[in-house]
Amino acid sequence: MQINYVLALFSAVLAGSVSASPATDAHARTVRVQLVNNHSGANKNAQVPVNGDRYPVPEIWGDFPQATSVQLTADFQGVTCSVWGPGWGTTVNDQHTWANFKGGALVDVCYGY
């Protein structure tokens, strides 16, 4: 009986140790990027990984179909971020944190990266 108790206690401690470890890489960095629709006033923020990878706009921002501009809103020191799609695109960075798409025209960002 005592052996079962010791095994159960050991299992509980071991399980607690494993679940206490971080679920994500502690060194992963993100930047907060906001898509804005200046015609409707709508905007949506998203945390974008700073790793050089390309992500589809819907994967990062979800359902936000049209935007007129993009801006970096937090944690953007040393970051360059490009958002583009068919016939439109722009780049923002820590020195130029805001930019219009196509002169402020609405673009369909659901096809963008």
From TrEMBL:
Record keywords, A-Z: Signal
Superkingdom: Eukaryota
Signal in keyword set: yes
Signal peptide boundaries: 1-20
Protein name: Uncharacterized protein
Species in which this protein is naturally found: Penicillium nalgiovense
